[in-house]
Amino acid sequence: MEKLSVLVPLLAFMGLMLAVSFAVRVRREKGGAGFVSQYFIGNRAIGGFVLAMTTVATYSSVSSFVGGPGMAWKVGFGWIYMAVVQVTAIFLVLGIFGKRVALLSRRLDAVTIVDIIRARFGSDALANLSAFVIVLFFLGTMTAQFVGGAKLFEAVTGYSYLTGLVLFGAVVVLYTAIGGFRAVALTDTLCAVMMMIGIVLLLYFVLEAGGGYGAILETIERDHPAMLTPLSAGDMPLGLYFTQWLLVGICTIALPQSVVRGISYRDTRGLHQAMLIGTFVIGFMNIGINFTGILAHGVLTGPVTEYGTVDNIIPQAIARSMPPELASIAIIGPLAASISTISGLLIVASSAIIKDVYMHEKMKRGRVPSMRRLRFLSMTSTVIIGALVFLLAASPPSLIWLINMFAFGGLETAFLWVMLFGLYWRRANKAGAMLSMAGGTVVYCAAQALKIHVFGLHPIVLGLSSSLALFLLGTYLGRPTAAERLRVFFPDGREK
Fold first, then answer.
1. How many Cα atoms are found within 13 Å in the side-chain-facing hemisphere of 219?
2. Cα–Cα distance measured from residue 313 to residue 292, given in angstroms and rounded to the nearest whole number
3. Radius of gyration of the chain (CA)
């Protein structure tokens, strides 16, 4: 009976998300806008608050709430000093790309990031490669979310890992397939609110269980003094700070799942609201949950081997510090992080396959797919991708934060220079973009596979450096972009 009482609030929350999805579906079918615009970008009608929350929720993953604070428990305050760079993520992505992408998408009638890349460089091959890279790395990220969410569900509710995987996996795939982007944005907002509530609840009960802030710090100072230092006795070297600031901070401006939010907002006022709200919320979440991870030493006093891996720290802290009825509410926050990230990635992956590849190829041949067929294929592709991720997650890997960071690095390597130079440098051309995306991604994956760390730095540095060098090489050796194409992107001629 106790296990069921823990499950009920979670089931109620998932039921609410399904209800929102069905409501959006009904409204979409009554509306006059085309299916593609409605399904993939919410008909460009997302307000400031919802835009902030959906961007935050998509950026914040289960790694942020499970793997990250688990590492904070192990490493100490050095992990917070590293993670604080994430406060800038929403402000940067919306500030650098948001308005520019929105204006271009309206000018070009673009629905996806790949649409903009195709229009800028005039290359179907580059567009198809972009879609492939998106789907490839999204599979890794979504697998990490499924695994992290199911592990958390198992630890807190007492039900099996597979039960959790089936339950929230089915819900997230279903509401994403039915409701499309607007349903994802609205449910992301609900998820973000529950994340904040979960952090506050867990922080309070961890402090209570540990005897208060002072007592917990005394325990840490006595047993783990290195945790109070920035470098954590070598566990947080300066090279790790640098690469993590790139990986989870600065370079996140190029993540397709975040940039696409710029296409969807309603007006400039909403964009500015989203930048301010999003910055506050992401700061509260990242600092709050990692700080809670450190304070969990007041509850979990043994070695990490006693709990399995660092991925089990937060689930164990919830289970040991909170009463079951409140644990069931707190668990919604981290699970919401998993669910919101998966839904955001699913809709972008589906758009990459259906809108960017299938629909474009059909229209190039003069054949316009019917709205009925597009609706069926879009929903089907969402379900198939979700099912594939479910199968990958059925045999769970460990250290989900590493899987998540690998996917982050791959997407950043592939898209950072292509988006940045493509939108702000007239001279950028097709050859540079193609070499950068293809070559940089190969170098990054090879460095990860072979564990190549130049000067001890994360492979993201090698990936970004090689993709930059290849972009410049291709740009100076390749043909310039046609003037009429450039006029669409640089109509005033001032950008150099």
1. 18
2. 11
3. 22
* pLDDT tens profile 121-147: 999 999 999 999 998 888 888 887 888
Sign, CA torsion 308/410/147/94: positive
Both structure tokens of 126: 């580059």
> Does residue 247 sit within a domain?
yes
- Cα gap 421→243, rounded to integer Å: 22
Band (pLDDT 50/70/90 cuts) for residue 55 is: confident
- CA distances to 9, 118, 175, 372 from 127, rounded to whole Å, are 43, 5, 28, 25
Whether 437 maps to a domain, the answer reads: no
- Mean pLDDT over residues 243-253, rounded? 78
pTM (two decimals): 0.83
**DSSP secondary structure letters along 160-192:** -HHHHHHHHHHHHHHHHHHHHHHHHHHHHHHHH
Residue 449 clears pLDDT 90, i.e. is over it: no
**Alpha helices in 33-160, H assignment, sequence order:** 35-41, 48-59, 62, 68-75, 77-83, 89-92, 99-108, 113-121, 124-157
Does the residue 430 lie in any domain?
Answer: no
H/E element, 111? none
Return contacts of 264-267, CB within 8 angstroms, 24+ apart: 264/41, 264/42, 264/44, 264/45, 264/46, 264/51, 264/181, 264/185, 265/44, 265/46, 265/47, 265/48, 265/51, 265/98, 265/102, 266/44, 266/45, 266/46, 266/47
Q: How confident is residue 45, by pLDDT bands cut at 50, 70 and 90? A: low
Which tokens hold the place of 432? 């540079």
Task: Kindly list the distances between the CA atom of residue 328 and the CA atoms of 7, 12, 163, 204, 318, in Å, as whole numbers in the listed order.
Answer: 6, 11, 16, 15, 9
Residue 43 within a domain: yes
Query: The domain containing residue 206 runs over which residues?
Result: 2-401
Question: What pLDDT does 142 receive?
Answer: 83
The sign one gets for the Cα dihedral 173, 87, 204, 71 is positive
Residues constituting the chain: 496
Segment (H or E) for 323: none
Per the prediction, the chain carries an average pLDDT of 82
pLDDT in tens, 332-345: 877 777 777 777 78
b/e per residue, 224-239, with b = 16+ CB within 10 A? Answer: bebbeeebbeebbeee
Q: Per residue in 276-288, pLDDT tens? A: 888 888 888 888 9
Identify the CATH number of the domain in which residue 150 sits.
Answer: 1.20.1730.10
- The reported pLDDT for the residue numbered 4 is 67
How many Cα neighbours within 13 Å face the side chain of 154? 16
Q: Count of domains in the chain?
A: 1
pLDDT tens digits, residue range 290-346?
Answer: 999 999 988 888 888 888 778 788 888 888 888 877 877 777 877 777 777 777 788
